[in-house]
Design brief:
With about 90 residues, this protein is an alpha+beta fold. Helices cover about 40% and strands about 25% of the residues. The chain is built from four helices and three strands, in the order H-E-E-E-H-H-H. The chain has a three-stranded antiparallel sheet with strand order 1-2-3. Strand 2 and strand 3 form a beta hairpin.
């Protein structure tokens, strides 16, 4: 669990990253900018313990922050979009 907290903290250095343990073993992630709460998200236990899913979470949060700021992220930069190629049919 500490690895997930350290990874999330390192991924968002511009925010004060706060975490609370949830009853199911997951985390409640809160990104703060000064006194203002910028984002709050519940992270399930399984997502905290999978490096790949944690990377997807970070990518999704970055996308959400960019959209909220009025910027549209480039699709190629979204990890969840560029990891898997679309299936081809013969």
């Amino acid at each position: 669990m500490q690895l997930a907290i350290d990874t999330l903290t390192a991924a968002f250095p511009e925010f004060d990253v706060q975490t609370q343990t949830r009853p199911g073993g997951g985390l409640l992630l809160t990104l703060m900018s000064g006194e203002q709460r910028v984002l709050q998200r519940a992270v399930p236990y399984n997502q905290c313990n999978s490096t790949l899913q944690l990377e997807w979470l970070i990518s999704a949060i970055r996308r959400d922050l960019a959209l909220e700021a009025g910027m549209s992220p480039v699709i190629a930069n979204l990890q969840s979009q560029s990891r898997v190629k679309l299936p081809t049919y013969a």
